[in-house]
């Protein structure tokens, strides 16, 4: 065949310089075999080959080894137009049902087609490269022409600007020359006038000399006239000297002007020469521009020729594509015939294989079912035996269940009886506990003396506080020494400076229990600044041993509530913290509040007002006050820390950091079980320091703070004294503090006052005032406390108990 004759023949010419050959001329590269023996090297054959290649690649899945061998052979193969047409028109020969032979012929034909396509692809790639090179060279020449034209325009502009500057310089030089000539003429005229003046002066001098000879005889008479004439002569000589100097200067200027004129003439000649050279250069550039334009015309003609050639090659490429489509349709017909043959020959084999597989599967299924049947029979026998055993064990378990059921009923009855007894005992305990506290007094007063501190600096002085040693006054009496006079006082409990925080809390833990039992309980600390009130109430929460009454009371409440929860009690606790500063209530738990200094007005009143309200049950509420539900002592500790950060403090002569407000912590306790409901309140109050103005040294805003503190404490004293005297009117409304504490000081609450003392000798007057006030409070008696409880009936109706 034609293709087999040309497989090993090398190409007639190298297409690229990269292949080791010289670059072929444009006319030879454009040659497309027009005769019978011409080579098909144009874009038409290349496009046909590309179409055939896409068809073959999309429909044939030959091995990689065939493709590699074809690629190696195509590098050295070359085809003529007749060979390509014979290859495309080649028909499959052989017997009608010799599909294998036909398939081999098709594979051989496909290999030759691939080889031809690869050769055409190489030819097309080379043509595209040449075409790209021509485009690039044409673009480069056009770009170069445009650059040359731009440079020409730039140089023309430069020459025009230079010519204009030379003309301007020439005009300027001519003006300078004319000016210098006029100056020269003026200088000559001045010189002439000076000569005339000199001649006139000489003539005048001669006439004067003659007159002087005539008038010598009259010298005595005309001395004055001679002197004047001599002076005039001297001036004339000076004028003559100045005229000579001006004349020499004019001569110098004339020489300089002549030299400048010569230099200007030289520059003019140089400029004329440069102008001639520029004109010659301009003519040269004009010639170059003409040549560039001619080359541009030639490039345009070549471009048009190439465009015509490309159009003709595109037409041939379309013909190759049509032939490729016809071959593709033939290949699709052959492929469909092969697939039909495969289907007809493979159906019987597939059906036979399926029947064999189904037979084997049925045999395996029968064997497995037999084994499963034997296994199920064994399991059925064992299950029957287990069923018999289960019936026996079920009857035994039923008997045991009946017995356990009876035991559970008995235990439930005993549990109900035990709960009833526990409730009765709990009520008895509360009653006895309350009776004990009533016997001790519903308003009780404890006294606590803080130890001497290193900063007090009075260890060498005699102590002003002592304690009686008698049995009657042990732990309840205290003596104060002032100016040699001894004052004795007796309270419910006196704690010396050696008492610990735990010792103090043990004495008040019963009152905390009363709050859990449903009573209103109030514990507040009173005393001068620096006497240890805040330490008694708060202590140092981070230290276990130095915790104050508030943290310890909360720990006891939450521990007891957890223990009672196992007995069916459900607790709900709500906490609030406020302070009374300058007769104004501040909420210390507001989260988005501004600083106290920003919110304080001229009278020391915050921007937001709070109102104290008492309901019919004796409960106290403050409007708009933040109330937080708490479940553990840690939550309350966090609230106390937040409140302590916001509390108003200041520096006085009594203390570096003195509390300037009354601190009130309130915990409302609600407890409910199946039969009873209780509501208790625990108020823990740290009052501001009580001292005289002369002692505190307060001025300005602190003076107002001290006056407000002393006023509220005086109102508290008035309320205590009115209660002690059992007066009909008790002035609770005279102060925010007393109005807030009204339910705690009335008949349905328990109140404990801590009077705190400082052992410093300088504080003996303040300590005496505090002790006297505490003694008056200790004499007060209020009514019998009432517990806020309710018995829950089956219909959830409540019956109050007094």
Question: What is the topological layout?
Answer:
Layout: H1 2-5, H2 26-30, H3 43-59, H4 64-74, H5 81-89, H6 99-214, H7 223-440, E1 443-449, E2 465-466, E3 477-482, E4 485-490, E5 493-495, H8 501-516, E6 520-527, H9 533-537, H10 549-565, E7 570-581, E8 584-587, H11 596-599, E9 612-614, E10 620-622, E11 628-630, H12 633-646, E12 649-650, E13 658-659, E14 662-672, E15 676-686, H13 693-696, H14 701-724, H15 736-740, H16 742-745, E16 749-757, H17 764-778, E17 789-792, E18 798-801
Parallel strand pairs: 1-5, 1-16, 6-15, 6-16
Antiparallel strand pairs: 2-3, 3-4, 7-8, 7-11, 7-14, 9-10, 12-13, 14-15, 15-17, 17-18
Provide tags for this entry.
flat; 802 residues; 12% strand; Kinesin; eleven-stranded mixed sheet; disordered C terminus; alpha+beta; 17 helices; three-stranded antiparallel sheet; 61% helix; single chain; disordered N terminus
């Amino acid at each position: 065949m034609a293709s087999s004759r040309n497989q090993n023949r090398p190409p007639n010419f190298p297409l690229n310089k990269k292949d080791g050959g010289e670059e072929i001329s444009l006319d030879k590269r454009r040659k497309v075999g027009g005769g019978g023996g011409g080579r098909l090297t144009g874009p038409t054959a290349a496009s046909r080959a590309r179409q055939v290649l896409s068809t073959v690649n999309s429909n044939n899945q030959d091995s990689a080894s065939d493709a590699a061998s074809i690629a190696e052979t195509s590098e050295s193969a070359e085809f003529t137009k007749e060979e390509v047409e014979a290859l495309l028109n080649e028909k499959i020969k052989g017997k009608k049902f010799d599909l294998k032979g036909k398939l081999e012929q098709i594979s051989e034909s496909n290999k030759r087609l691939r080889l031809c396509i690869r050769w055409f692809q190489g030819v097309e790639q080379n043509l595209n490269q040449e075409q790209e090179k021509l485009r690039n060279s044409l673009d480069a020449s056009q770009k170069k022409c445009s650059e040359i034209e731009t440079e020409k325009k730039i140089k023309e502009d430069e020459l025009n600007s230079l010519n204009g500057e030379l003309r301007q310089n020439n005009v300027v030089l001519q003006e300078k020359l004319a000016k210098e000539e006029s100056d020269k003429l003026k200088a000559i005229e001045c010189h002439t006038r000076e000569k005339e003046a000199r001649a006139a002066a000489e003539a005048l001098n001669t006439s004067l000399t003659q007159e002087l000879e005539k008038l010598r005889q009259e010298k005595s008479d005309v001395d004055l006239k001679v002197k004047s004439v001599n002076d005039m002569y001297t001036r004339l000589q000076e004028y003559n000297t100045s005229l000579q100097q001006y004349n020499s200067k004019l001569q110098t200027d004339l020489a300089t002007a002549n030299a400048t004129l010569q230099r200007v003439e030289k520059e003019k000649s140089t400029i004329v020469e440069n102008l001639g050279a520029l004109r010659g250069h301009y003519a040269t550039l004009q010639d170059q521009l003409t040549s560039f334009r001619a080359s541009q015309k030639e490039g345009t003609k070549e471009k048009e020729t190439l465009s015509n050639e490309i159009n003709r090659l595109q037409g041939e490429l379309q013909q190759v594509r049509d032939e490729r489509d016809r071959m593709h349709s033939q290949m699709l017909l052959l492929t469909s015939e092969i697939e039909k043959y495969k289907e007809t020959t493979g159906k019987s084999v597939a059906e036979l294989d399926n029947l064999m597989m189904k037979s084997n599967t049925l045999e395996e299924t029968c064997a497995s079912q037999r084994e499963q049947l034997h296994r199920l029979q064994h399991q059925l026998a064992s299950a029957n035996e287990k069923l018999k055993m289960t019936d026996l064990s079920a009857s035994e378990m039923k008997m045991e269940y009946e017995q356990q059921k009876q035991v559970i009923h008995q235990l439930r009855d005993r549990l109900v009886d035990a709960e009833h007894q526990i409730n009765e005992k709990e009520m008895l305990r509360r009653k006895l506990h309350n009776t004990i506290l009533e016997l001790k007094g519903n308003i009780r007063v404890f006294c606590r003396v803080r130890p001497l501190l290193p900063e007090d600096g009075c260890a060498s002085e005699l102590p002003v506080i002592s304690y009686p040693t008698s049995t009657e006054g042990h732990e309840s009496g205290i003596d104060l020494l002032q100016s040699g006079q001894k004052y004795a006082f007796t309270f419910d409990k006196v704690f010396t400076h050696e008492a610990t925080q735990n010792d103090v809390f043990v004495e008040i833990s019963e009152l905390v229990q009363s709050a859990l039992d449903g009573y209103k309980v109030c514990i507040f600390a009173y005393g001068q600044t620096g006497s240890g009130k805040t330490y008694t109430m708060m202590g140092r929460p981070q230290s276990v041993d130095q915790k104050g009454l508030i943290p310890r009371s909360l720990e006891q409440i939450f521990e007891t509530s957890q223990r009672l929860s196992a007995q069916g009690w459900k607790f709900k606790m709500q906490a609030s913290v406020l302070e009374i500063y300058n007769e104004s209530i501040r909420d210390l738990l507001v989260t988005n509040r501004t600083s106290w200094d920003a919110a304080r007005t001229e009278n020391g009143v915050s921007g937001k007002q709070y109102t104290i309200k008492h309901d019919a049950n004796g409960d106290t509420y403050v409007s708009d006050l933040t109330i937080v539900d708490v479940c553990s002592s840690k939550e309350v500790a966090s609230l106390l820390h937040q409140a302590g950060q916001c509390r108003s403090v200041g520096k006085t002569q009594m203390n570096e950091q003195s509390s300037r407000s009354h601190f009130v912590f309130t915990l409302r306790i609600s407890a409910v079980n199946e039969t009873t409901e209780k509501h208790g309140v625990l108020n823990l109050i740290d009052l501001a320091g009580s001292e005289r103005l002369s002692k505190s040294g307060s001025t300005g805003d602190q003076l107002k703070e001290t006056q407000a503190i002393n006023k509220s404490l005086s109102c508290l004293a008035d309320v205590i004294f009115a209660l002690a005297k059992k007066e009909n009117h008790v002035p609770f409304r005279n102060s925010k503090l007393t109005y807030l504490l009204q339910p705690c000081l009335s008949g349905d609450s328990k109140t404990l006052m801590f009077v705190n003392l400082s052992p410093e000798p300088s504080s003996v007057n303040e300590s005496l005032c505090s002790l006297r006030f505490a003694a008056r409070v200790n004499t007060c008696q209020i009514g019998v406390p009432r517990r806020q409880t309710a018995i829950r009936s089956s219909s959830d109706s409540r019956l109050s108990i007094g």
